[in-house]
Write a structure and sequence with these properties.
Distance between the termini: 7 Å
Number of helices: 9
Bound molecules: adenosine monophosphate
Shape: globular
Length: 267
């Protein structure tokens, strides 16, 4: 990174400990977090609050491996939810939920379109890309987008951790329903174990944080994310590894481990 930082990608298996490292980059380098997982959760929230209760699996054609056309989904939703004004977020939420609930990645076409929309809002720079790109197709799309927009991918920070530890950490993860702050029942409990220290809202467990889904996500990481990172490396994006576990786990120790790894790239 030379005179300024354009964008940093933070990669790592779901549950490896990306968020505390992202917090450091946001604070120390003044970047903004762009998380595709959070974007999808927002749309799933729009779908959940629409009140649609029927089986969403009927909209997915397993033979074609694709959803039925949007107009078919919209017609069914309109019939069930006559009061709904804006259908796009509900349809997107329905599709994202279908995959997330199975621990699978959302298809590239949906992910790239949404990512591009949010990336453009920040003028394609000054962002920490969290959880994107996650497939070689997404990596190609991102490299091409940055080339066209004249922005850089300065660095990939890969948060490393052990798979079994990830399973333990993820199953114990609790998230504030309102502000998104992340806790852990054993390693980082909130003061009363039930509500957020920051805003007082209830803590919840993500519905995709079950052991089976965590293991599916780990497989998705090896099959798709590892080749995506390789592609970025081949295209000249430097990569550093940071530990997802620091002992003792304090803000200062996390900050130091991240900034030490970044030091050779910062001027
Ligand atoms: P995360 O919060 O990053 O673990 O993401 C939660 C879920 O959102 C993932 O398990 C995927 O189903 C979906 N997701 C997030 N980012 C992507 C992406 N770049 N490509 C495909 N699916 C994604």
């Amino acid at each position: 990174m030379t005179d300024r930082t354009d964008n940093i990608i933070v990669a790592g298996r779901s549950g490896a400990g990306k968020q505390p490292r992202i917090d450091v980059l946001v604070k120390e380098l003044g970047l903004t977090q762009l998380s595709t997982g959070n974007i999808f959760r927002e749309f799933v929230g729009a779908f959940d609050s629409s009140g649609f209760k029927d089986d969403i699996g009927v909209f997915f054609d397993p033979v074609k491996g694709a959803f039925v056309p949007d107009r078919v989904i919209e017609a069914a939703l309109r019939k069930a939810l006559p009061g709904t004004k804006e259908m796009r977020p509900v349809v997107l939420g329905l599709k994202a939920k279908y995959f997330m609930n199975r621990g699978l990645f959302v298809p590239d076409s949906i992910t790239n379109e949404l990512f591009c929309e949010y990336f453009s809002r920040g003028s394609y720079r000054g962002q920490v890309l969290d959880g994107y790109p996650r497939t070689p197709e997404q990596a190609f799309f991102l490299l091409d987008l940055c080339r066209k927009q004249g922005t850089r991918l300065d660095l990939v920070v890969e948060v490393e951790n052990d798979d079994e530890l990830i399973v333990e950490r993820t199953m114990g993860r609790r998230i504030c329903k309102a502000c998104g702050k992340v806790y852990h029942v054993k390693f980082k409990p909130s003061k009363d174990g039930k509500s957020c220290d920051k805003c007082g809202s209830p803590l919840i467990q993500r519905s995709d944080d079950t052991e089976e889904r965590i293991r599916t996500r780990l497989r998705e990481y090896y099959d798709k994310v590892v080749p995506a990172l390789e592609l970025l490396r081949e295209n000249g994006v430097p990569m550093v590894k940071v530990p997802g576990n620091v002992e003792p786990f304090t803000e200062e120790n996390v900050r130091r481990s991240v900034m030490d790894a970044l030091a050779p790239y910062l001027k």
